Amino acid sequence: MRRVGRISPMERDELAAWLRLTLTPGVGGTAARRLLVAFGWPQRIFEQSPQALQACVTAHQASALLSPPETLVALVDATWQWLQEAQASGAPVRAVAPLGHPLYPATLLDTDDPPLLLYLLGAPRFMVPGALAGMRCLAMVGSRNPTPQGQDNARQFARALRSAGLTIVSGLALGIDAAAHEGALAAGADDDATPATIAVVGTGLDRVYPSRHLDLAHRIAAQGLLVSEYPLGTPPLPGNFPKRNRIISGLSQGTLVVEAAPASGSLITARLASEQGREVFAIPGSIHAIQSRGCHALIRQGAKLVESAQDVMEELHWPAASQPPTTAPSATPAMGDTMHHSLLEAMGFDPIGLDALQARSGLDTARLQVQLLELELAGLVGRLPGGLFQRMGLA
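RE: above sequence
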């Protein structure tokens, strides 16, 4: 495991200057970066005259820069307290990493709109200089309402890719995001030299959204990293989530879309990845499932069709380690009834309703429902909304 020195803590005045720059209304990332190039550290920006500032920004922006935001003092106090809170040995560590900070991921500097400031929460071994250098990261994104097969694919692909040494990056959302994080955590050992998974969130790091992922967020912080560009206290505003997608794709050498409906947020991430010069991968699915249409559209547009974790590794020219299966393993119900195999064959791999399955299998309703329940309990069949069923994995 990497043994390096600790990061020198940020001084309170420096933190206040960075927060003031990010909070100044009307001054976005592009203008802020121009100011940093011209004057260096944020403290120096606020020492300039209006005339000097107007060489980089508009008069309105210059005026805003010279008037501290009303919320600044409270945010500095809250952030400083968050950073200073006593941590038990081995507990997750907090950090604020602005542009140029040793913890700021270098891959983000190659994007058009790198965040000025990142809030980080993660395992102590990743919060030291050089710990995040040279990471091989793959973003995995997809539907918040996946099919059982899509959710299983996400979990199995993430586990296989993590076992090959990749860090899985996603957004802590419901559905595919959560399954990708879970799969990576299932493969990652507690003493790994690189994060098992990175969650880029759309809120402040003092909040977890959705709230049902509180336990998942704690486990990510123990084996990986939580990352946000949003100040503490930021609620889950709808506009924040599409914006944070550029960080998900920017941290990664490639983006794998597992399932995506047309016009979904996952397609935004895929587009951003393409614009950033990253590889885009997509898993094909059923022609009858709306969750597959976004992936099929990406493949038509040139995304790489993926059937296994090995496909991703080969396309990115990364050596592959020994990997577990990328899809649910074939299994046999405990009762060993060959009729169940016949039912699976009748079902196929597309979603199917009870009436259609009864017509294909020739089973009466009571017997069909009993066998479906047994297959569900064995993990071979998943139940979809609308009374549909779908065969899982390679069963």
